[in-house]
Every structure is written in structure tokens, then in C-alpha cells.
Amino acid sequence: MEFDINHLLETIPDINQAFLQTIYMIAISLAVAVLIGLPLGILLFVTDKGLFWENRLVKIILGFVVNMVRSVPFLILLVALIPLTNYLVNTTIGPTAASVSLSVAAIPFFARIVETAFREIDKGVIEAAIAAGATPWMIIKDVLLLEAKSGIISGVTLTLISLIGFSAMAGVVGGGGIGDLAIRFGYYRYDDTIMIATVVILIILVQVIQIFGDTIAKAVDKR
Q1: Of 91, 104, 130, 211, which has the most beta carbons under 10 Å away?
Q2: CB 192 within 8 A of CB 200
């Protein structure tokens, strides 16, 4: 592989645009994932056996839907969601269109992480809150979310990193971003400089997010 620094300097505007598109995609998708995935994760936990909103039917249905979406490879999900994407954003290409599939993939992923974070809470804390007369909403707000906030922040970090990988794959179908740049220039045109640059950018981005997320998670961890 050959790396040409002069060629890299010439393509900086393209790389900058692709980077901003990637940030745009993952920002929208993460926001949707947290907005929908957090309450979904709460429902998956509190409807389980022995908890205050125990409901076997709801638990089975939600669990099935979450597992079904998670079991579909992302590239297949991209194609399967083309009609929905076209309906919602009036196009099937570009970063906004890719954000639809990214959001759908991220919601169940984050929901399961939230559920797992709640399962790590000492059951005695929840039982004590119930014994003290706390309402379900108070338990969710003042016990579950408070006790699991470190795990939830770690989950946000993990979801964000996964979205970066998914967004790179979205470039295969014209989703824009770093992945699209790597496919169009690095792969189709055998441009080693672009390929190396995009890989390095993704590695640095993931490392920065991981370090930042771990730092915040440790700062809010009460243990």
C-alpha cells in the first residue's frame, strides 16, 4: 500500500465533509436510540417476573421484537428498511436516509444494554423502595435510573461506537460519511491514501469516544 501525503492534502475537503456526515448520522441515531431505547429497556426490566409491573405477555412481545431486529445483519436491515426510509425522509440515499436504518438498529441494542444495567442493581434496593411506599414512577426515577446511571452511560458509549461501525457500512448503499468515501475512493479507485486515512480517522474517533465515555461512567459510579 502507498501513502501520498500530497494527495491526502488535496482530498482534505472531501474527508472533512465525510467526517461531518458521519457525525451527523450517529448524532441523530444516538438521540433516537436513547429517546426510544431507554424507556424500552425500562419496560423490558420492570415487566419481568417478580417486579412491580410484571407482565409476561408484554415481556415476551417486547423481547421478541428486540431480538428479531438485533438478529438481522445491518446491511440486510438497510435494504429491508428502504420503503420506510423513503416514506420518512423522501429519499433512500445520503446521511439523513442512513440515519433511519442506524436508528432502528441502535434502539434494540441500547434497550438491551439498559435492561442489563438495571439487572446489576441490588434487588434489596428496589424492595426497600417498594416497602417504603414508593410509586413505580418514583422507583424508576429515583432508584433504577440513579443506581444504573454508570452502566447506562457505558451503554451510550458502546452504542455510539457500534453506530460508527454501522455508519461505515451504510456507505455501501450511498449513505454518505467516512464509509462512503472509503468505498468510492479507497476501494473502487484503489486509492490507498484515502483508505488508510479513513481507517485512521475511525480508529481515533472510537478511541476518543471510549476514553470520554469511560471517564464519565467512572465519575458517576457510586460504587
Answers
A1: 104
A2: no
Sign of CA dihedral 81, 117, 202, 28: positive
Q: Is 183 helix (H, G, I), strand (E, B) or coil?
A: helix
Q: Which residues lie closer than 8 Å to 20 by C-beta, 6 or more apart?
A: none
Residue 73's contacts (CB-CB under 8 Å, 6 or more residues apart) are none
What is the tally of structural domains in the chain?
A: 1
Residue 159 lies in domain? 5-220
Question: Please, which residues have CB within 8 angstroms of residue 169's CB and are 6 or more apart in sequence?
Answer: 74, 75, 78, 179
Burial class (CB in 10 A: 0-12, 13-18, 19+), 98: buried
Mean pLDDT (the chain) is 87
- CA end-to-end span of the chain: 48
pLDDT digits (tens, 9 = 90+) for 167-217: 888 877 777 788 778 777 766 667 778 888 888 888 999 999 999 999 999
Report d(CA 19, CA 24) in Å as an integer.
9
Angle, nearest 10°, between helix axes 12-46 and 149-170? 130
Q: Around 35, how many Cα atoms within 13 Å sit in the side-chain half-sphere?
A: 8
- Least Cα distance to 102 among 16, 153, 168, 154 occurs for 168
Nearest to 43 by CA among 128, 140, 132: 140
CATH of the domain at 182: 1.10.3720.10
User: Could you read off the pLDDT of 32-88 as tens digits, one per residue?
Assistant: 999 999 999 999 999 988 787 888 899 999 999 999 999 998 888 988 998 999 999
